[in-house]
Amino acid sequence: MDANDIAWCLLLFPLISAATILLGAKRWPGLSAVLSTGSALVAFGLGVAFLRLGEGAEVRSYPWIDLGEDLFRATIGLKIDPLSQGMMIVVTGVGALVHLFSLGYMREDAGKARYFAGLSLFMFSMTGIVLADNFAMMFVFWELVGVSSYILIGHWYEKNSAADAAKKAFLVNRIGDFGFMIGILLVWVLTGSIYFDQIAAAAGGVKNASLLNVAVLLVFCGAVGKSAQLPLHVWLPDAMEGPTPVSALIHAATMVAAGVYMLARVSFLVGTAEMAAHTIAWVGALTALAAALMATQQNDIKRILAYSTLSQLGYMIMAQGVAGGSDAGMFHLFTHAWFKALLFLGSGAVIHACHHEQDIWKMGGLRQKMPITFWTFAAGTAALIAVPLTSGFWSKEAILEAAHEDGMHLIYAVGILVAFLTPFYMTRLFVVAFLGKPRTDHAGHAHEVTPVMWAPLAILAVMAVFSAYSPIAHTLEARGHADFGHLHFGLTFWLSLAGLVAGVLGAVKLYRGVDADPVNIPVFARKFWLDEIYLFLVRVFQDFVGMILDAIDRYVVDPVFVRFPALCAMGGGYLLRLFQVGNLQGYAWLFGAGVVALVWLLIS
Amino acid sequence: MSFPEYIILIPIVFAVAILFGAPARFSAILAAALDAVAGLMMASRFDTDAVAVNTAPSQFATAHEILSHPKLSLSFGIDGISLVLVLLTVLVTLAAVLASPAESKIKGGPRLWYISLLLIAAGALGAFCSTDLFFFYAFHELALIPTFLMIGRFSHNTENRVRTAWTVTIYLAVGSLILLAGLIALFFAAGGQSFAMEHLYEHVTTGDGIPAEKQNGIYLTLLIGFGILVSLFPFHSWAPAAYADAPAPVSMLHSGVLKKFGLYGLIRVATPLLPEGAAHWQHLLLALLLGNILLLGLVTIAQRRFDYLLGYSSVMHMGYVFLGIASGNSIGLQGAVLLMFAHGVSIALLFALTGALRERAGSVLEFETVGGGLARHYPALGLLFGFAVFASVGLPGFANFAAELLVFFGGFKPFAADAAAGMKPLQWATVLALWGVVISAVYMLRAYRRLFKGERSEHAVALHKEAADLTWIERLPALLLLVPLMLTGFVPGLLLRFIAPAVEGFTAFLGK
Predict the structure, then answer these.
(1) Which residues 530-549 of A have a C-beta within 8 angstroms of B?
(2) Residues of B with Cβ-Cβ distance to A601 under 8 angstroms
(3) Is the Cβ–Cβ distance between A483 and A492 less than 8 Å?
(4) Which of the four pLDDT bands, split at 50, 70 and 90, describes residue B210?
(5) Contact (Cβ atoms closer than 8 angstroms) between residue B489 and residue B399
């Protein structure tokens, strides 16, 4: 297989799997599951092969829309560079493990075939985003991951909450994509191209700096939607209505990271637009902070992890706005993918064992019941709270260092603050759910999951702790930290360490041995009431305005522009009938007279 | 005889045969299938390399002279734009005929039903193939009469169907009248010698053209006339009521095919012959199409009945075709033509499925009463509906997305050509129109959610307990529409290869 075959198979295998299931294999759920998982495993193999390809290997592209070079051309072209290679490993690696885990987790599910078709469709779409060499293609797959996420969040569609969450996710993303599309159009206007290579070549020569800033900010809107940044973050916590492996793959490791990946892809553009870059950094920092605050007061195990994901995505986005931080952000994306997927799958194992109980206050004592899950979860938590020498430590350090070096002190301060909060809420989760005594019968009767589920956990646990040491991490972090592997006892190190110790100790002191949350901060628990505010805005600016417009349409526009002319025409005939010429000739006469009059008006 | 003539004649001949006693459904299906084959054969023989002399459709051309002075002839010809519309028509016709009920189930005359459908198709095909201004108009009128009959006689809304039929027909007749006046004025302004399109184009290119002050008046008249037929804001409110009350196959044919006549007319007649008029009224057109997209988009959200929601959504999406036309450049126009096809197929698909839903849920599709979790009762219907919904919201993979993408790039093309000029009204309109993409996702996904997803009400459970999922006969029309829609979405080149040369010739013509 040459580079061309590898890249194309990587893209098409999952599509073939999804299509086969849809077109017939869905009658046999077991077969569908095997097909989908098989394609994911093959994709991982291909992903490894893909990693070994040299940059700039020749790959044929497929002309999707081709109106000629000078008009408009959008191809499906596959890009091979360290960025796409590293990201591909994340997607196929986590993807394959999540497929395996799902075999166990979804074994009894009635919609198993639909579920695996959705997973395969997602793998196809995500691969497309990673390999895209132009904005049009990226947007195509951007929308497709949106729809596969919709399908998977709404997997249990008979639950109102799941059906609503799926819809919400898609619509909120659409709002981001509104800006994204305008951004793409403006980049096209400014650089004359939608191809990343050509944009990169032309970006330096753009004279209209203000328009460039606007364009970059609009492109960033796409990332705000997909990576669930403020103010469009509201869909991600709700997306936890989907099956837990989906949360691990899509709403933690890969899809939500697509915004970060996209910004890294066009980092040369972000670098030329200073105002936009600052905004990006601030949006990321504020998201990291707000989400961490909200996470401290959630009780649903998956929601805590969801807010933690938001917070970590905020870090990555923040890095994209910091000069020279793009690689650090990608590095964090890489390490985060493994440990967050692990944490989600671990929570899935817990939920599975506790008969679909998600409230951490109804768990407890799982350490003895589920030792493997416990220890792997501990490894993931250690990486997330950045225990020194774990992978999460290195990548978070890189981001904070980049902010520090760029002189963005306020942003740096916010980042440090988040480093105090993260250990706090994760320790809270850990202590309440795993330690102490079981609080309910379900928790008391929990037992360890089957090997098909704990094996992926074990693999992920290794990756969670050590992924930063793998060579792939350095593919992504090519420029970044030359002194990687050497502890740098600077300000950042001591501050993060202080955060870690303070957060862990604080949470242990507060939460050990209690059966109800001793802390009660409504503003965090109710997520700053943003959902309620948005609901109100939608009611007013969409539903109410729609109602008013509907009434106007019905009682003003319709009578004036449609019924009145129609009535006049009928009345004309009626008048003629009064003059006893209401026969066919009469209509014809009226018709003719009207036409003659109009024509006379027009041409005289 | 040439392809266009066969294609127009086949439905007429079979309609006559049904009138004289041929089995109605069978004959109609046969006619529609033959027409589809003829359409595909014509496409396969179409020469994409041929360069049109001017923008008059010139392939498979035939003419039968009727009057020599002024020159009036029954003449047909095909170019890439009309070819795509012919393909759309034969495809939707076949689906509409297949989606019609069995003869025994049609109360009020199965023959009339099938004859009407065939005549609507014949009228639309005649209008798209005509290269003579008079017959271009007359064929469209031919299609309106059976539409009236179908609504008045077969509507499931038995209380108001006659009133709806009259209002719609009279109003469309008013539109046609205004259109006729504009066309006659155009005819005289372009020399008054010939109704043949090629002569009209010739007059514009070789002669002095039509004086600007006359162009403005004529273009406005045509815009209103065509606009009424396409349901341009604010002349739109006939459409949702008509589509909600009409039998599903009629809604399919009318919203999917016949409505495209007005858009085709703007592209074929108004814009090339009256370029200065088009430029003069561009801002008005932009304002009105934003009315379609934004105002009516919000109105669509407010609908409480699914059938009305679909009707409004069909009206709303016309705004994007208008946007492509208003952009006036090659990218936007190709997008507009592709979107005419994509919208036609996808809205026909939605109406076909709605017809199937109506059979199971009653004729008035109110969200309150019908819905909740229907995907559980009807998995196949739910799945196909899902495809149709995502086609309608412009998901990549369906031709709708490729077309809308081109329309948006078309809107920004003049800006890209001259970035120093700043944003012009066309670009602002494009930006605002993009918000419509959000709006259409809102109403379609909400509707899908309320009908097919979520918990089932007790009422819904009781209502649907006995009903069965789609039969294979019912799935056939939906698949027939869905497959080409996705095929052209994955490979838009299938249609763009026809559209591109026609539009290129067109813009070259405009550039003269």
Answers:
(1) 542-543, 545-547, 549
(2) 217
(3) no
(4) confident
(5) yes
Residues of chain A contacting residue B395, judged by C-beta atoms under 8 Å apart: 143-144, 147
* Residues of chain A contacting residue B397, judged by C-beta atoms under 8 Å apart: 144
Residue among A136, A143, A167 minimizing CB distance to B445: A167
Inspect the interface and report whether the beta carbons of A602 and B408 lie closer than 8 Å. no
Token output for B125: 């095909």
pLDDT tens figures, A541-593: 888 888 888 888 888 888 888 888 878 877 776 666 665 544 555 555 556 66
Cα separation, B509 vs B201, in Å, equals 9
Does A566 contact chain B (CB < 8 Å)? yes
Domain boundary assignment for chain B: 281-512
**Minimum-distance CB partner of A163 among B218, B303, B453:** B453
Question: Which pLDDT score is estimated for A479?
Answer: 42
The token pair that represents B349 in the structure block? 């698909």
Q: Assign B132 to helix, strand or coil.
A: strand
Q: List all residues 6 or more positions away from A486 whose beta carbon is below 8 Å from its beta carbon.
A: none
Q: Residue B468 contacts by C-beta under 8 Å, 6 or more apart in sequence?
A: none
Taking an 8 Å cut-off on Cβ atoms, the answer to whether A598 and B376 are in contact is: no
CA distance A288 to A419: 10
Position A482 scores a pLDDT of: 46
Chain A with chain B: Cβ pairs closer than 8 A: 184
Which of B13, B483, B81 has its CA nearest to residue B266? B81
Q: Are B348 and B259 in contact (CB under 8 A)?
A: no
Residues in B closer than 8 angstroms to A136, CB to CB, are 405
Rounded CA-CA distance A132/A119 in Å is 20
Binned at pLDDT 50, 70 and 90, residue A601 comes out as: low
Q: Does A571 touch chain B (CB under 8 A)?
A: no
Per-residue confidence (pLDDT) for residue A577, from 0 to 100: 62
Q: Could you give the 3-state DSSP secondary structure of residue B22?
A: coil
The H or E element spanning position B65 is: strand B59-67
Q: Which residues lie below 8 Å from residue A391, measured CB to CB, with a gap of 6+?
A: A335, A338, A339, A383, A463, A464, A465, A466, A467, A468, A469, A473
- Number of alpha carbons in the 13 Å side-chain half-sphere of residue B208: 7
CA B408, B411, B413, B417 torsion-angle sign: negative
Cut 0.90: pTM above it: yes
- Contact call for A65 and B493, based on CB within 8 A: yes
Among A205, A187, A91, CA closest to A134: A187
Judge: B435–A178 Cβ closer than 8 Å, yes or no: yes
Measured distance CA(A205)–CA(A183) in Å, rounded: 18
Contacts of A208 in chain B (CB under 8 A): 419-420
At position A584, the amino acid (one-letter code) is: L
Indicate yes or no: CB of A561 within 8 angstroms of CB of B373.
Answer: no
The neighbouring-strand residues paired with B72 are: B67
Closest CA to A234 of A172, A294, A285, A283: A172
Give me the amino acid identity at B335. Answer: G
CA distance A370 to A447: 6
- For every residue of B339-358, DSSP letters joined together read HHHHHHHHHHHHHHHHHHHH
A147-197 confidence digits (pLDDT tens): 999 999 999 998 899 999 999 999 999 999 999 999 999 999 999 899 999
Give the pLDDT confidence of B239-259 residue by residue, as tens digits.
Answer: 998 898 889 999 999 999 999
State how far the Cα of B116 lies from the Cα of B324, in Å rounded to an integer: 32
Higher pLDDT, A466 or A142: A142
